[in-house]
Amino acid sequence: xxxxxxxxxxxxxxxxxxxxxxxxxxxxxxxxxxxxxxxxxxxxxxxxxxxxxxxxxxxxxxxxxxxxxxxxxxxxxxxxxxxxxxxxxxxxxxxxxxxxxxxxxxxxxxxxxxxxxxxxxxxxxxxxxxxxxxxxxxxxxxxxxxxxxxxxxxxxxxxxxxxxxxxxxxxxxxxxxxxxxxxxxxxxxxxxxxxxxxxxxxxxxxxxxxxxxxxxxxxxxxxxxxxxxxxxxxxxxxxxxxxxxxxxxxxxxxxxxxxxxxxxxxxxxxxxxxxxxxxxxxxxxxxxxxxxxxxxxxxxxxxxxxxxxxxxxxxxxxxxxxxxxxxxxxxxxxxxxxxxxxxxxxxxxxxxxxxxxxxxxxxxxxxxxxxxxxxxxxxxxxxxxxxxxxxxxxxxxxxxxxxxxxxxxxxxxxxxxxxxxxxxxxxxxxxxxxxxxxxxxxxxxxxxxx
Length: 450
Ligand SMILES: [Zn+2]
Description:
By secondary structure, the chain is an alpha/beta fold.
């Protein structure tokens, strides 16, 4: 099946390279040509893209989709009390549902989240999630590229919420063999949640299995100041030093947040090939602090961008995330040139694709056809200055400007309508499941962790 995007006003091939009035041809799941006046192969679907920009699909490099049912209820508290008061009770409800063989909530939170992301031109996400076998089928039904970062933890959590460890390890490997298809729409990463949630034994197992099975690894690192202080007290090492000591700092690792780093941490990360996922809105909402993104970039650390969970964002909107990354870096350094729109765009495309281990994030022949068509006619984007297109997109663009979204060569959303499913029906069911979850959560209160 071929697809021709015709008369594209602006083709953002990379953060540095924008072409005007060109076409893009997609054959199968990949881009096959970019150029002027490309002929349409027989039977090709043709999409007119005048007055539009075509960009590489945005990639949300870190999120927790189960939190999609927790929007707007974070109650203005910081990370640890938030876990006790909001997160753990909710997980309790979900576990109750799973115990009763009700897997539908997982399908619905995943599907509703995927719908939100695709509406904003996000074509892939790394979802560190409580695992249920409904997550990947939901992603496939919606048509979104998915990396499931399988959450692992054996410490700190309330005991009732910890799985039996050997059983969990067995399930992870089973899940990997079922869903890890690096050339396809679904991949599995291993995700020890944080260093303080996992003992050395489990972390060593993650390192071994990731190498043996060639998997990515994602972990939260140095999100809050007390995490670093506790690590220093217990181990005499910062979290990044501990990762290094455990042999986990490598190209397959993505370290989420990295808000509280010292110079040596930055140096260690810079020499390791490990990536960082910057989640500026989540860090701002939970008052975690400000990640030293500019220092990281200067040290050669590849930085991608993520929304984090809906409970701490509360949107799955990469446009807002790009804008926030730029604004936060500038105000924190008192420097209007600290970070530019092209830097944020690179984090949400090129670097995030590298993190996901997929050939995407650029519009080049041979790359995956994960694309968003952005309507440039909204008043907030006009008048548009062609020399400053990327600045306009990052500072003025909105998720609702995305008109069509193409994933793996398939048009998933066309003229803001989904092609393969009834969006309203899924969202109505998600409303109902979310309401039940919220009402039932008061039945679950565990002993507080600190
Ligand atoms: Zn997170």
